[in-house]
Amino acid sequence: MVERIYIFKRFERFWHWTQAALIITMLITGFEIHGSYHWLGFETAQETHTTAAWLLIGLWVFAIFWHFTTGEWKQYIPTTDKLVAMAKYYLTGIFSHAEHPFRQTQLRKHNPLQRLAYLFVKLMINPLIWISGLLYLYYPSWDAWGLSSLGLTLGIVAFFHLVAAFLMLIFFIVHVYFATTGHTPMAHIKAMITGYEEVE
What we know:
The protein is mainly alpha-helical. It has one domain: Fumarate Reductase Cytochrome B subunit (Up-down Bundle), CATH 1.20.950.20. It is built from 7 helices and 2 strands, in the order E-H-H-H-H-H-H-H-E. The chain has a two-stranded antiparallel ribbon.
């Protein structure tokens, strides 16, 4: 028997899809700025990348505020409860149609592995992108800020920004893959559109 449970609130869905669109935009334009390919042209790619970056920073700031004022930040607290069971499920159980070891509720939206992955994104990847990206953007101000005398170079900042971009790309690919592992390939994606997750 399948039960429909309202899991994702309207803002969560807006935040999720807007963030996805901005991250995709930044990945496409960022790799063009890096010189990986030529499509929009350097200037257009750079302007689009910078605009998307500011929009994403604004969205993240608002999302952080929303998470703390609503208490949704608790969804990301790591837990070892069913952590091993989830790892086994993703490694082998998913391919043998084993029963899913985690049941979603409004109070527990993310399984233990999702919590760790999202926490890594929020505490490691996002700050690395923010800091390196802003340093890259404000390179002309480094002398005034005293950063040049510290031995910091544009090459170092570019390297860390690129590392952060690849980490985000890897997360994005894995995230899309796991989004197709519900009881139907579109079940989880549909839930992030309607807000309702179908749970057995």
